């Protein structure tokens, strides 16, 4: 625990004129995105995830968070979506423009024999700045707030103990504003958001925000990575 805490440092992204929004620039590009998205959708539909546990986190743009968790050993699949709010069946347009009480979130399918929930919490705090209220990097608004969801009392205790450890170790100069919320409902995002970083390497946001954020995480926690992620 102490080793992990020592590796956690505040993350600071320069304010950019880009954000977690994207549209294909032309019809040809749009066709390519749709084609790749359909392939990814088919691959994910073939997977049997019933044997895995699930965990839910929100820490900014879900394109970034999905890529980070997919690099972790023991994680089988990560789905981008929306959670933490009260509206039913929210859309990306509604959430991304702050028209709902939901946050962009991820659903993590993991093997508890390989990676523990506490390690997933370590990944959560080690890959974003939990002290910025309703903001992560260039993305602003409650839809990008920091939330660690729990499904039972054990998970809640793990999250709260981790936060307490960070505060006692004074890892961050500012107060941690992460919400600790009981998980209620997760809504899967539109298909084109799934594996977005991997399928859209030329996207400006991906190049300037998502990939650097993923690489910083990899540098801090090489021991948590899948072999192919090194």
TrEMBL record:
Transmembrane segments: none annotated. It is an enzyme of class 1 (oxidoreductase). Residues 1-22 form the signal peptide. Its EC number is 1.8.4.11. The active site is at residue 61. InterPro entries: Met_Sox_Rdtase_MsrA_dom, Met_Sox_Rdtase_MsrA_sf. Keywords: Oxidoreductase, Signal. Residues 54-205 form the Peptide methionine sulphoxide reductase MsrA domain. It catalyses: L-methionyl-[protein] + [thioredoxin]-disulfide + H2O = L-methionyl-(S)-S-oxide-[protein] + [thioredoxin]-dithiol; [thioredoxin]-disulfide + L-methionine + H2O = L-methionine (S)-S-oxide + [thioredoxin]-dithiol. NCBIfam families: msrA. PANTHER family: PEPTIDE METHIONINE SULFOXIDE REDUCTASE, PEPTIDE METHIONINE SULFOXIDE REDUCTASE MSRA 2. Has an important function as a repair enzyme for proteins that have been inactivated by oxidation. Catalyzes the reversible oxidation-reduction of methionine sulfoxide in proteins to methionine. This is Peptide methionine sulfoxide reductase MsrA. The lineage of its organism: Bacteria, Pseudomonadati, Bacteroidota, Flavobacteriia, Flavobacteriales.
